[in-house]
Amino acid sequence: MLKIGILGVGHLGKFHLNNWKEISGVEVVGFFDPNDENAKLVEATYQIPRYLNAEELIELCDAVDIVAPTNFHHQLCVAAIKRGKHVFVEKPLADTMEEARDLVKLVKESNVKLQVGHVERFNPAFLALQNHKLNPLFMEVHRLAQFNPRGTEVSVILDLMIHDIDIILSIVKSEVKNISASGVAVMTETPDIANVRIEFNNGCVANLTSSRISMKKMRKMRLFQKDAYIGIDFLNKKTEIIKQKTEDDTDEAFTFDLETPNGGKKTVAVANPQIPEVNAIKMELERFRDAIVNNTPTPVDEVAGFRAMDIAHQILAKIKQNSLLA
């Protein structure tokens, strides 16, 4: 039985706790949270012990799930890794690039597994494409949210856009060539809305817009590649593929003919891949458990977490530079 300790049981931490209690082969031995009122509620609701000292709980565990604010990630990760404990840590990996580099180094030197909570990797709409070849030349991304004071200790880049940065880096197998970015702080002291253009060495270009001051919610990604247009709706769990029909296409695809400029015809297929019925948070935690039990790599390791952070911080530097020039 894998013994898990949860460090932080706020809004998201409770979601993690609910899912851990449904995952087989796992025992939640306790939690750490400095908020007395919140801790009493969790103790009464879940009947698991509270620990007033994080290190004391870490000692009793095989692995920890860190769902604390970002500025505590490094401190708690180091405490766990130095005790030989496996770590699941919510995104972003750390508060600063220096802290992130330190964690990558510590994990490499240790014999522990670390997974970063980039939960959109497990979104059913994205999972529906796992058997499709993705080789985009252009990507357009919109992630819009209504204002919520929770989580505003970091910019919209590290709060929302980092989800899409991670997805893009997992798809585009090329190094970043150039980044252009602009952003505005409207409701907080850090950018609340931003537009970013990322150019890769292989010619792919990704345009990203993220806002946490919108009137409506949206989490969409559009991929344009040589043979297809692919739309992913992370919010509504829908995926669409539009491409020229080939012999390999399934009969489920809706087809229609288009006339070409030379008078010929092309058959276009519109398909909606089957969306798996999965709980994204539960699935990412199960994959973390599997990596520990089977001694296999975690699906979003510390290097992936570091790369997403690196691009996010380059974006923030560009925004700061542009604001100084304005």
What does this structure look like?
The structure is a single chain. The protein has 326 residues and is an alpha/beta fold. It has helices spanning 11-20, 36-46, 54-59, 73-81, 97-109, 124-127, 156-171, 280-294, 302-325, and strands spanning 2-7, 26-32, 63-66, 86-90, 114-117, 138-144, 176-184, 193-200, 205-211, 218-225, 228-233, 238-244, 254-259, 265-271. The chain folds into two domains: 2-112, Rossmann fold (3-Layer(aba) Sandwich); 122-278 and 312-325, Dihydrodipicolinate Reductase, domain 2, CATH 3.30.360. Strands 7-8-9-6-10-11-12-14-13 form a nine-stranded mixed beta sheet. Helix 1 (11-20) crosses helix 8.
Determine the CATH topology of the largest domain. Dihydrodipicolinate Reductase, domain 2
- SS element count, helices: 9
- Level-1 CATH class name of the largest domain: Alpha Beta
Radius of gyration: 21 Å
In CATH, the architecture of the largest domain is: 2-Layer Sandwich
